[in-house]
Structure formats: C-alpha cells, structure tokens
C-alpha cells in the first residue's frame, strides 16, 4: 500500500499488536553479485599484472589491459566500465557491432582480436579503434578502403593495426593455421603496406603462443620480430600478447597490450 504523505492516519497500526501489519522496509540498493564477482576477478588479475610489471622492471611503462568479452553479455561490459575498464576485445564482428551500439555512451575503446574476413572490414571500422589480426595483404587493402570511406563520412581517427604473427614452428600446425597469422618473414612487407595506407596506423605486432609451446620462448621470438619492425618503423612498438594463462611471460618480454578474458569473466556462457 502506498503511504499517503497528507491525511495520514494519526494512529497507524502497531506491528507489535495482534492484527497490526509492519510497514514495508525501505528499498535499498539491489546487490549485484555479478558485479562483485567481476570486481574480485579483476582485482586478482590486476595484482598479477602489477607483480609481473615489477619483476620485469617495467613500472614506467606497464601494459594496457584489454578485457576480452566475447560471448559475454553487454551488461558485463557495462559493469566492467564501472570498475575502470576502458578497453574491450571481441572476435566476432556481428557480436562486437551489436555491443558497441548498445554501449556507445561509455566511450570504450574496441579492439577486434579475431580472424577477420576482408568483407567484414567495412563493418569493423565503424566501431573498432584497433584490429589486432591483420595477417595478409588483402585484409590490409580492405581495411584501407573501408577506412577511406569511413573517414570521409565521420572524420574518425586512424585505425590502429597490429600484424598478427604465426609463431608456430611447424607450417602444417592445424591449430596455428586456424588462428591465422603472417609468417615472420612476411611481416616487413605487410608493415610497408599498412604504413603507406591513409587511415591506418601501423601499431606493432600481435601473437598467440602456439599450443603446447613454452610461452616464454614464443614471446621472446615475438619480441625479436617487434625489434626488427621498430627498427624500420619507429612508431610501431606495440606488442599485443599474453592471455589469462601466460600474461606473466608476455609482460617479461615487453607486451604492451594484454588480452585477458576467462580469468576476469569466467567460463564462456553456453551458446544459444
């Protein structure tokens, strides 16, 4: 029953007397258990990163944390934003585009981190600030064409492009092939194409440690490739590497962008 501000009964029922009814408890904030879970997980990951940064002597240049939110709802991203997260990663264009549209008020930086078909470039440049999976000339050309049109339409800033490098030792590694990536000896040629394209900014390199390989060895190799790239393109110093299971090794070998998903968000929800 709604309490009347005026004309209130001068003798309201006493809940301590038989037949009386207790007044409704005042409404308080609804506990958000998912927010609390994300806050705990995020704090734990931030502690791991801080420890790794200290061990590597990188307090002056810590890496940027990208929270990989693929398959998780937009509501989780809004919660993460309330906890200070500004960078999110997605690997499916349709899902990413929908979330970016829903959360446009948050001012987030969207990173596309999955294999990208050239015909999706036009869509991706509408919301992404960075693509971490440029691995072939055709995709670089498609992104340049899409950015030219999008820049004319909206005046948006340049798209950061990371060259994805395939670090697998065996060329026939099916898992590595599924993940994509340019061969190490293809990186400089692709870099020249990206650096010469209006609307694109060559940001650096990206890699995933091959399955079954020692992450430290993989990231040491990536750091070497990054050094060769930066020698010719001094602004391309970014290294996108490190996930939940190997962030410490990535920080040790100079990662500037960490892509962390499951240790913050938990297991993927069941696909519907």
UniProtKB/TrEMBL annotation:
* Bilayer-spanning residue ranges: none
Query: Does Protease appear among the keywords?
Result: no
Q: Which family does it belong to?
A: Belongs to the pyridoxal phosphate-binding protein YggS/PROSC family.
Top-level lineage group? Bacteria
Q: Where is this region: Disordered?
A: 1-32
Which species is this UniProt entry from?
Arthrobacter oryzae
| The name this protein goes by in its record | Pyridoxal phosphate homeostasis protein
Q: Which CDD domains match?
A: PLPDE_III_YBL036c_like (cd00635)
Q: Name one GO molecular function term.
A: pyridoxal phosphate binding
Record keyword Repeat present: no
Query: Which parts of the sequence belong to the Alanine racemase N-terminal domain?
Result: 41-269
Q: Which Pfam families match?
A: Ala_racemase_N
Which PROSITE patterns does its entry note?
UPF0001
What this protein is reported to do is described as: Pyridoxal 5'-phosphate (PLP)-binding protein, which is involved in PLP homeostasis.
The PTM N6-(pyridoxal phosphate)lysine maps to: 70
List, separated by semicolons, the cofactors it needs. Answer: pyridoxal 5'-phosphate
Q: Where is this chain compositionally biased, Low complexity type?
A: 18-29
Q: Which PANTHER family match?
A: PROLINE SYNTHETASE CO-TRANSCRIBED BACTERIAL HOMOLOG PROTEIN (PTHR10146), PYRIDOXAL PHOSPHATE HOMEOSTASIS PROTEIN (PTHR10146:SF14)
């Amino acid at each position: 029953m709604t309490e009347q501000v005026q004309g209130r009964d001068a003798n309201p029922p006493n809940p301590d007397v038989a037949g009386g009814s207790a007044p409704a408890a005042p409404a308080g904030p609804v506990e958000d258990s998912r927010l609390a879970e994300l806050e705990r997980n995020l704090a734990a990951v931030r502690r791991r990163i801080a420890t790794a940064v200290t061990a590597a002597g990188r307090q002056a240049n810590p890496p940027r944390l990208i929270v990989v939110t693929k398959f998780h709802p937009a509501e989780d991203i809004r919660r993460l934003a309330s906890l200070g997260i500004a960078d999110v990663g997605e690997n499916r264009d349709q899902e990413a585009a929908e979330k970016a549209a829903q959360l446009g008020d948050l001012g987030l930086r969207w990173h596309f981190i999955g294999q990208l078909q050239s015909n999706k470039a036009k869509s991706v440049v509408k919301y992404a600030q960075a693509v971490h999976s440029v691995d072939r000339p055709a995709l670089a050309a498609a992104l340049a064409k899409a950015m030219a049109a999008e820049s004319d339409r909206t005046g948006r800033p340049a798209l950061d492009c990371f060259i994805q490098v395939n670090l697998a030792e065996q060329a026939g590694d099916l898992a590595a092939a599924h993940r994509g990536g340019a061969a190490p000896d293809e990186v400089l040629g692709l870099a020249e194409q990206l650096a010469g394209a209006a609307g694109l900014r060559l940001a650096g390199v990206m890699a995933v440690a091959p399955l079954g390989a020692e992450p430290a060895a993989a990231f040491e190799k990536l750091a070497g490739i990054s050094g060769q790239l930066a020698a010719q393109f001094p602004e391309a110093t970014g290294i996108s590497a490190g996930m939940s299971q190997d962030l410490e090794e990535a920080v040790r070998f100079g990662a500037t962008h960490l892509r962390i998903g499951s240790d913050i968000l938990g297991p993927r929800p069941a696909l519907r």
